[in-house]
Design a protein that fits this description.
The chain is α/β, with parallel strands linked by helices. The protein is 39% helix and 21% strand. The longest helix has 16 residues, at 244-259. The structure holds 2'-monophosphoadenosine-5'-diphosphate.
Length: 281
C-alpha cells in the first residue's frame, strides 16, 4: 500500500460528500489504484488539517464548503481558473512540493450544459444570480462559452459590481439591482449560483424573468436545488437542470487533472441518479 496515491475531500460538514464515491468509481473504471477519503476540516483548523494531509504524502484534494476560499489562500501557486474564481475546489501537491490551487466549477458547468444537455450557449442572454465564488467561476466560463449578454444580480450590489469589473467586458456584462429584477425582460438561461437553497432560505424572484423557452439551472443539487427549480417550473420554464451533472463533471475534471485520464462521467452520473436523492451542493 505504500505507493498508493492518497487523495481526500475537505469540507465541514463532510458526511454528505459524493466525492469519495465518484473518485472510487472513476479509479475502478480507469484501472488506477488510489485511496480517496473524506476529511472533516472546520474553518478554524482548515490550514493545519490541509498541511498535515499534504506533509504526510497526500497527492491531491477536493475542497467543498466552506473551505474553498481558505484553500485558495493557502496555496503557493494558482491556475488561471482559480485566480478568476478567487476560490479553489482542487488542491494538488506539485513535484517541487508546492501546493497548487485550481478550480473546475466553471468548466464543469459548461460541459454539463453544452455536452450533456446539448444547450447552445453562444448568442444567449443569461441572468446569473449571485456573486460569490461559484458565481465568479460560472461568469467567466459563460463568457468564454460565447453568451451574448450576461446580466449579474446579487443581493449585495457591491459584490456584483466587483465581479463585473473583474470580467472587464462592459459591452456584454450588465448589472441589475436585486430589487429591479422585475423590470427585466425574459432570459434564455437563468443560473442560480447563490447559496440560498443550500441555506434553506427562500429567494423571491419575479416570474416575469421566465419565458416559454427559458432554461433554469441551479448549481446546487438535491433538496437545495428544489426551491429555485420549482419556482422556474411554476413560472413556465422550458427546462430545469440541477447541479448534479456539473458536480460529476467537476469531479471528472479534477480526476483528469491528477491522473491525465478522462473518466466516464455519464456512467458515474447514472450511478448517482439511480441512488438515493442527494442532499446538497
Ligand atoms: P459560494 O462559494 O457558494 O459562491 P459565497 O461566496 O458565500 O458562496 O456566496 C454566496 C452567494 O449567495 C452570494 O452571492 C450571496 O449574496 P451576498 O453577496 O449578498 O451575500 C448569495 N446569497 C446567499 N443567501 C442569499 C439569499 N437568501 N438571497 C439571495 N442571495 C443569497
Amino acid at each position: 500500500m505504500a505507493d498508493v496515491q492518497r487523495f481526500t475531500v475537505f469540507g465541514h460538514p463532510i458526511g454528505h460528500s459524493l466525492s469519495p464515491r465518484l473518485h472510487a468509481l472513476f479509479a475502478a473504471r480507469c484501472g488506477i489504484a488510489l485511496e480517496y477519503t473524506a476529511t472533516d476540516a472546520p474553518p478554524e483548523r482548515f490550514r493545519e488539517i490541509v498541511r498535515a494531509f499534504f506533509d504526510g504524502g497526500g497527492r491531491g484534494a477536493n475542497v467543498t464548503l466552506p473551505g474553498k476560499r481558505l484553500a485558495f489562500e493557502l496555496a503557493d501557486v494558482h491556475t488561471l481558473a482559480a485566480r478568476r474564481a478567487g476560490v479553489a475546489n482542487v488542491l494538488t501537491r506539485l513535484h517541487d512540493g508546492s501546493l497548487e490551487a485550481h478550480n473546475t466549477d466553471g468548466a464543469g458547468l459548461i460541459r454539463d450544459l453544452r455536452e450533456r444537455h446539448r444547450i447552445r450557449l453562444d448568442d444567449r442572454r443569461v441572468l446569473l444570480l449571485g456573486a460569490g465564488g461559484a458565481a465568479r467561476a460560472a461568469a467567466f466560463a459563460l463568457l468564454d462559452a460565447g453568451v451574448r449578454e450576461l446580466v449579474l444580480a446579487n443581493r449585495t450590489p457591491e459584490r456584483a459590481r466587483s465581479l463585473a469589473d473583474a470580467l472587464a467586458q462592459a459591452g456584454r456584462v450588465k448589472l441589475s439591482g436585486w430589487n429591479a429584477l422585475d423590470g427585466c425582460d425574459t432570459f434564455d438561461l437563468i443560473v442560480d449560483a447563490t447559496s440560498a437553497g443550500v441555506l434553506g432560505v427562500a429567494m423571491p424572484l419575479p416570474r416575469s424573468l421566465v419565458g416559454d423557452a427559458t432554461i433554469a439551472c441551479d448549481l446546487a443539487y438535491g433538496e437545495a436545488a428544489l426551491p429555485f427549480l420549482d419556482w422556474a417550473r411554476n413560472a413556465g420554464a422550458a427546462q430545469t437542470i440541477d447541479g448534479l451533472g456539473m458536480l460529476v463533471e467537476t469531479a471528472a475534471d479534477s480526476f483528469e487533472h491528477w491522473h491525465g485520464l478522462r473518466p466516464d462521467a455519464d456512467a458515474a452520473l447514472l450511478h448517482l441518479r439511480e441512488g438515493e436523492a442527494q442532499p446538497r451542493r
